[in-house]
Specification:
- This protein is 34% helix and 25% strand.
- The protein has 167 residues and is α+β, with helices and mostly antiparallel strands.
- The protein has one domain: Gcn5-related N-acetyltransferase (GNAT) (Aminopeptidase).
- A five-stranded antiparallel β-sheet has the order 1-2-3-4-5, sandwiched between helices. Strands 6-8-7 form a three-stranded antiparallel β-sheet.
- The protein is globular.
- InterPro entries: Acyl_CoA_acyltransferase (IPR016181), GNAT_dom (IPR000182), N-acetyltransferase (IPR051531).
- GO terms for molecular function: acyltransferase activity, transferring groups other than amino-acyl groups.
Amino acid sequence: MTPTLKTERLTLRPPLPTDATPITAALQNPNVHFWLTAVTQPYDFQDAENFLISCTHASANLHWVLDEGGGLIGLISIGSELGYWLRTEDHGRGLMTEAATAVVTDYFTYADDPLVSGYHLGNDASCNVLKKLGFVNTHIDAPIKSATGQPVPTQRMVLTKSLWNAR
């Protein structure tokens, strides 16, 4: 079960069915979905509902909604890798770094396995979040983007518990 986490400005909480509308709106924005590998386009309300249903099933994946007090502004998950997105109107405020710091702190409280993540080449904002957390480059690959069916060059990164504790 995904725990609720608090930061200075955010509540990180499990997703709720009522998050379908703001998720749909955010993921229709080209400035958000352009950088996401697994998001189909067009992304509609049913896609958001299906995602939310998948969040309620028992799995190893943890999903948090970023809520600054007025509802969903983004999402962060840990599954096979750390992934996240934020509404464009909230970019540049340090919110994702704040949220990711809380999530990674929680993760390494209970786990010793490294976290993996990555960013599409050219996504400097996501690169900066991961570097601030202490992630280091491992290799570049090119997963297939769901929206286009085309490979997208992606810098893969890793964060070990020892790197996290040493920062």
